[in-house]
Amino acid sequence: MSKPIVATTSLAGCFGCHMSLLDIDERILDLFDLVEFNKSPIDDIKTFTKECDIGIIEGGCCNSENVHVLQEFRKHCKTLVVIGECAIMGGLPAMRNNVAPISECLEEAYLNCVSVQANEEKIIPNDDELPMILDKVYPCHEVVKIDYFIPGCAPRADLIWNALVALVTGNEMELPYEVLKYD
Ligand code: SF4
Q: Does the Cβ of 31 fall within 6 Å of ligand 1?
């Protein structure tokens, strides 16, 4: 019987949620028995080569490329799961949502911030090759329909494991209090 196919990506996140997924330790071998990975940083497949059963998203949307990737995941994955606070509500990157207009945010980041050490020409990056920054950071559910939300920063490895196993086996998810984490 063919295995369910899983894709994962990191949008505006820190890769901590993917690190937490890898924290399932030796169960990663069981995971490879259970599922086949397609587009994912885990196997370095860059584009979808098959339609997928489950898409796992870390991070929210802060630029046009994030939106494009998220829409591609919605198109190619039957079930979309967001993991972590950045994907669920914007998380740390969404702290910039308090700075408006966006020009003020860019000036603070590239010109005025005390940590800017070397930008004597006062350049704010602006190139056609760069994705367009959005007016604010959007949680994934404000861009596409999301089926499941796994909280935490990062969600504990056991929670991600339990959720994945439940999704691919169709069994009820085990949700003991100890695996939940909301910060
Ligand atoms: S939720 Fe936390 S661990 Fe996950 S991408 Fe955001 S900051 Fe990183």
A: no
